[in-house]
Specification:
There is one protein chain. It contains two helices and eight strands, in the order E-E-H-E-H-E-E-E-E-E. By secondary structure, the chain is of the alpha+beta class. It has one domain: Archease domain (Archease, Possible Chaperone, Chain: A, domain 1), CATH 3.55.10. Strands 1, 2, 6, 7 and 8 form a five-stranded antiparallel beta sheet that branches. A three-stranded antiparallel beta sheet has the order 3-5-4, with helices on one face. Helix 1 packs parallel to helix 2. It is globular and about 45 Å long.
């Protein structure tokens, strides 16, 4: 993967990230990794659990927002902390993804922020021949 992400600054009462990759799928993966870093840091820990996500949406922005909100839902309902995304495929407004992660354990993990939802406000997906850049803002 040759993508990445960074937290956006000067966003009042919310938090945002900018993510990028060589292609659309790579940029989506970077966006998921950015969300995961906002929630918790699992980069060095054991991530024995997997969750599969399958989404269908009418547009690319909806596909992204639904993916991010599904990850937030897993954290809210199962205390599943996403570590990384090991598989992501986008075809004809369908998305299949596999996440690895862990169940929150207060003796091991620290929560960085409680993310409520990914929003459409300020959402950008910019594609060029060189890379895809995504900006997304989350309600906290």
């Amino acid at each position: 993967m040759s993508g990445g992400f960074r937290e956006l600054e000067n966003i009042t009462a919310d938090v945002g990230i900018e993510a990028w990759g060589l292609g659309l799928e790579d940029a989506f993966v970077s966006t998921v990794h950015g969300l995961a870093s906002l929630i918790s840091d699992l980069s060095g820990g054991n991530q024995p659990l997997t969750r599969k996500i399958r989404i269908e949406a009418g547009s690319l922005p909806s596909l992204l927002v639904q993916l991010l909100n599904e990850i937030i839902y897993l954290e809210d309902t199962e205390s599943f902390l996403p570590g990384k995304i090991t598989h992501l495929k986008i075809r004809n407004n369908h998305l299949d993804a596999t996440l690895t992660g862990a169940i929150f354990d207060p003796e091991i993990h620290t929560l960085n922020a409680h993310i409520k939802a990914a929003t459409y406000h300020g959402l950008e997906i910019n594609q060029s021949s060189e890379r895809v850049t995504i900006k997304v803002i989350f309600d906290v």
